[in-house]
Amino acid sequence: MGRSFENRKHSIAKTAAQKSKLYSRYGKMLYVVAKNGVPEPESNPALKNMIEKAKKEQVPSHVIEKAMEKARGAGGEDYSEAKYEGFGPGGCSVIVDCLTDNPTRTFTDVRNCFNKGGAKLGNTGTVAHSFDHLAVLSFKGEDADQILETLLEADVNVDDVESEEGQLTVFAAATDFYNAKQALLEMQPDLEFDVQEIAFVGQSDVELSAEDAEAFEKFLDLLNECDDVQNVYHNAKFPE
Description:
Layout: H1 4-7, E1 9-10, H2 19-36, H3 45-56, H4 61-72, E2 80-87, E3 93-100, H5 103-116, E4 120-121, E5 131-140, H6 144-153, E6 158-164, E7 167-173, H7 177-187, E8 193-202, E9 206-207, H8 210-224, E10 229-234, E11 236-237
Parallel strand pairs: 9-11
Antiparallel strand pairs: 1-10, 2-3, 2-4, 3-10, 5-7, 5-8, 6-7
């Protein structure tokens, strides 16, 4: 799958016009991860990983620090996770991952995106069975066999290691995310990850026609406009 994984997982919008929204969403995610653990990255691997991702997305340090300060204080917002499932244009499967302090508002916003985007919102479990919940680590490299051997020696439950155009992508059990990352860094301390996350990965692809692909892109744009939407996972394959 390699780099194409990113084409099948549309996350926070990255255009210049939407940077304030990007910062706001990362601020929310950092706050929640810090609040659910401890607000110190060296003692909270999930927080450390989120900070690394934020920096890679060029989120300013003051945004990161503000989220940490909020998490260290008393009270604060009460966010909860919400996932919505359904079918996008062309019949592909979609999972929408949200963080919300108002579930009713979030549900209404997501439902409106499905309705306006020519998609169909389903119930919990509608499409989840067609995705695997996996740790995904992608980086530049060529020797997939060496990577697989390194991970197996570290007792990582590896689903697959794929190589594509000088890019290696490791898929492992979600529970082995930190073990896999640590094993790779011990092997190569200066290794830089292009992707490092726990994600929903489609078990099979649904090929879209040119018309459905255009409609699906518009549907994704609608979802990216929602402040509470953090990630959108799908199994659509766009025409080349």
